[in-house]
Amino acid sequence: MQSKMPKRSASTGNINRRSQAAPIHRVHSETALSRQRTEAEPIQQQSRKNSSQRGQSNLLAKISVNSQESRTYRDSDVEVNPPAIIVRQGEETHSRRDVVTRMLDRIMRLLLNPAIKEPQTEKKVKPKDKFAIKTPHLAAVKLGKDIHIAGNSGDKRVRELHQKEGLNRVLVLVEKLEHGAGDAGRYEKDFRKLEMLLQARYHQGEDISDELNQIKVVLEGHLLKWHQVDKKESDKGSVHGEMALHGPMLNHAKNNPRDKSAPKAPIPVAGVKRDCLFCQWAHAILNEHVYADLGYEISTAGTHGVPFPNWKAPQELMENNNALIAFKERLQDLNHDGTLWTMDEAGKVTLDGHAEKINNSHDPYESESDVE
Ligand SMILES: [Zn+2]
Description:
The chain is of the alpha/beta class. The protein has eleven helices and eleven strands. It has two domains: 181 residues, no CATH class; 128 residues, no CATH class.
């Protein structure tokens, strides 16, 4: 049974179009990345609303601000936009990702799906056993043959129960799910695609890709590596999931050194949400000051442009003085009368004064394809 998300025209959303889109499997090839970066330059000049701020000359692809609707696009309609320090508060970007990264997005969404808490097909669980998902977010990255997952630290952290049982519950649900029996909309589609992957029916063109196959193997063996499970912070701060992944990502980059003169190898980060403003900046800064020398570049689904008080920098940023300076300088740009953003010695960002309300959707774009 085919159930499609309502399809909307990408043209209404200002997502950059390319006349002849590269096939999706080429998105993360180095040539595609470097080519797209040069192509993106002229487009970056358009439609910046407020020209009074610094760093305005390189506007990234953006879609409309204050939009909460989820959108459905052909992947070929979305550009690759590496994390960028010039993204401003409230500015949204989307970035195109490959089929493997989008499958990881889906698995993260399923791990957070409220239906997993109390699935209709299961008898009601006791409160004690309730799937203690407090995190609003999970991020994931595939490094070699491992899938690393992290939620936020702090109040909304992932609990041990989540780590222990999350994947099992997803797999049990997938086994039980009849086509069309799941939640409406995106979750149903997510279930169906994961189910197809596990049944080896998920395909990219004709064949299941090696990378997707590896995800299948990892899921079946439950070989997920979780980070900052039940990690509290002493200061109300929160290290966001994608920031916590810099530990394993940097390890991976250091252990697999690349020729500096070669094009950068992308490390695509997947997750339930796009980057917040600070995570986007931190990725961009770490790309420049840390990963570039190692021959790598972090890529993400883009940003929803919202800054969060109590955001806490990862160790990898705190330990690199140039990176830290770059972040603090960028943070200062947010300050104006009545608003003061500061970062303390532990890397926690605090807001004094008035916070701008931004209603952007946090989700990555949705692929209109039923199978990719
Ligand atoms: Zn964040």
